[in-house]
Amino acid sequence: MPELPEVETARRGIEPHLLNRTVSAVVVRDKRLRWPVPRALIETLPGQRIESVTRRGKYLLLHTPAGTALLHLGMSGSLRVLPADTPAEKHDHLDIVLDSGRALRLRDPRRFGTLLWTTSDPGRHKLLRMLGPEPLGDNFDGDYLFAKARRRKVAIKNFIMNSHIVVGVGNIYASEALFLARIHPQRAAGKVSRERYQALAKAIRKVLNAAIQAGGTTLRDFSRADGEPGYFRQHLRVYGRAGKPCIRCGNAIAARVTGQRSTYYCPKCQT
């Protein structure tokens, strides 16, 4: 599933092609995504100028004077900007056609993606209003995590992957950040000190920024907006390295399942 770095990579890839462009048409070949594409979007978006392209968690927001389109890539979705007359392939479910003669095309083999429409403040939309702060924003730091973690018995890896606590820290990035902060992924969130949360917040920022710069982590179907895969997976320190030596101490990396997710860590370095 595309995570925050992949979605931010996609945002940066499509923004130059969409910004200040007017939508000519919305072509829906199959509206049966996670939720049906709303008629209001199909009828209202054409003729609107895209004023900005932002991200909230794993949602891309296309802002226009009439409202905001909310786009989520689901499990296997990807975006391309290409000539509008490019023949559609099997899983190319919709196009947002621009006055430049190009189109933003959503490909989604599993159809778990989403394209919705709101005329209200998008931050108050039911899918966004309960989300935690952005990990790269000013409202996220170690003091915030420490306060949220008090008396919580949940494993810290699950804690930082909870989108109501902080958005966008997916499985891979949680494992990597906990390794950098030297925290065992199964330690109870409420048993971690303020100082270690400060280290963890910095590690989360570092891992996510590095992944964004590298273009995200390619898993399964995800590719960048230009069609090229991301390469952050070449720089993973623990994820997917079970049995291999830790880059810090040489001890074998361990793997176990935490919260139904594969978890990788160094039993010696992370306590």
Task: Determine Rg (CA atoms, Å).
Answer: 20 Å
Count of alpha/pi helices: 6
Topology pattern, helix = H, strand = E? HEHEEEEEEEHHHHEE
Number of domains: 2
- CATH top level class name of the largest domain: Mainly Alpha
Strand content range: 15-25%
Provide an overview of this structure.
Helix content is 24%, strand content 21%. By secondary structure, the protein is of the alpha+beta class. It has a 4-stranded antiparallel β-sheet with strand order 1-6-7-5. A 4-stranded antiparallel β-sheet has the order 2-3-4-8, covered by helices on one side. Strands 9-10 form a two-stranded antiparallel ribbon. The longest helix has 21 residues, at 194-214.
Please give a handful of descriptors for the protein shown:
271 residues; alpha+beta; N-terminal domain of MutM-like DNA repair proteins; Helicase, Ruva Protein, domain 3; four-stranded antiparallel beta sheet; 6 helices
Secondary structure topology:
Blueprint: H1 4-18, E1 23-28, H2 39-44, E2 52-56, E3 59-64, E4 67-72, E5 78-83, E6 92-98, E7 102-107, E8 114-118, H3 142-149, H4 156-160, H5 171-180, H6 194-214, E9 254-258, E10 261-265
Helix pairs in contact: 1-6, 3-6, 5-6
